[in-house]
Predict the 3D structure of the following.
Amino acid sequence: MKVSQLLPVTAQGLAPFLARALAPVLALAVLASPALADPFRLIVTDLETPLVPNSVMDLALQEGYFDRAGVEVELVRVQQTPLALAALQAGEGEMANISVDALLQVIARGGADLRAVTSPNKSLPYLIAAAPTVQGVEGLAGTRFGVGRLGSLDHSLSMLVLGAAGIEPEGLDIVTLGQPNVRAQALLAGQIDATTMSIGTLLAMPDPDAVQVLIDVDAYYAAAPVVMKVNAVPAAVLETRGDEVEAVIEALVLASRDYAADGALWAEAMARARPDVDRADLDQLATTYAASWSVNGGLQRQELEHTMEWLAGTEDFADLEVPPMSQWLDFAPLDHVLARIGIADDMDMDVHSR
């Protein structure tokens, strides 16, 4: 054997030599851990960052909360819950922000094995606005009240709120008008005397001061503590990507705590996300949402039980049985997160009773 055959591989030939030697190893490594290379896809039902606490999902990405929690997140944007549910069931995402109503319906029909794991925005920021001629809440009796449609979310919840305020829903003249902006226009035009809208719709009106707020956001939710939206995941995702599920929850909770502690942080982040919105409006919204953040993950058993009882009496469940909580909710991922980061002792507190 020649001496030259015992010499090491030259520098010039080292790269192709290593490439041939390591190619099988690298290929096996890639095949063995595909999940590590894939982003965690979070399906949201807003095509742009919304002007509500649900914005925390967009802002957690924009402001680096997901990165700091150690999870790579990609937002998948669709319009409304039905498309979000369809995308989640088709495997186009690992988690989706959807309505509790729709989640319970699909599970009641045996259509999916999904579990709610957190609620970054439990309720819509609804309020009841009225014409200046209405003399207080009691003055709503017998007036024309605008709703989206009979049986719609705003109709059902508002009747619950008004009933708690001593107003008999049967005595109202219910006017179906469709979308919130249409109802707001009808209120300004004097076609109705009052209606339900979000705080964002109110601020978007040409002249918000032309109407009065009879029942504000906090009072509305206190009278109807119904959890409207949750983040749900397929059971298979909990099994295979449970650590990432917890990381997403942790990021959302920590962002919510920061915005609850200092509303200006939210307004500043929103100004970057939504430069089309006046900063004064963002500051006003930040004040409105001061007590609305899910600083402990938003899953309070008492509120969830109340939500199930309310849903059982709606038209959507006239022919369906509301499934038990164990079939559509899993507290464990959130409990694991709270065990690591602690419980915030100022709001969103029912976590102690689990």
User: Anything to note?
Assistant: The beta strands are 40-44, 73-77, 95-99, 114-118, 126-130, 144-147, 173-176, 194-198, 212-215, 229-234. The first helix runs from residue 11 to 32. The radius of gyration is 25 Å.
